[in-house]
Amino acid sequence: xxxxxxxxxxxxxxxxxxxxxxxxxxxxxxxxxxxxxxxxxxxxxxxxxxxxxxxxxxxxxxxxxxxxxxxxxxxxxxxxxxxxxxxxxxxxxxxxxxxxxxxxxxxxxxxxxxxxxxxxxxxxxxxxxxxxxxxxxxxxxxxxxxxxxxxxxxxxxxxxxxxxxx
Length: 166
Fold this sequence. Notes:
It is a single chain. By secondary structure, the protein is mainly alpha-helical. The protein has helices at about 1-40, 45-70, 85-120, 130-160. α1 (about 1-40) runs antiparallel to α2, α1 runs antiparallel to α4 (about 130-160) and α3 packs antiparallel against α4 (about 130-160).
């Protein structure tokens, strides 16, 4: 169990670091677009869509790290008043709800990826990029978030029993 949690945490860290650098790529793409459009008057039609795909990749890839680091949004109406084991029990309940959401998301992303592969789906634009890479990334990152959610269940289970895994 501990080895699984450590492996998922390391994988989430690695993917999260890669995602962090995607912001710099997105900034470079948008800067290129601004310069070519406004300075030399040669608009590059692929820039905005490439920036959108980069932002989507950033969002998908950052999900597991956000879960691992407990950096997601939480309403603290009564959570802060709970004991550590009480917080772990509450977190265990919410991560089960997260599993349901991620399972539905995975089902939808697999369906969407399958459709994109079968039809050769492309975005309807001047650039006309394939949708397969971003949909494959969405599916892979959803699997990664599910793996991290199972690691969280293990962490919260042990913390609820008073034996935290670190």
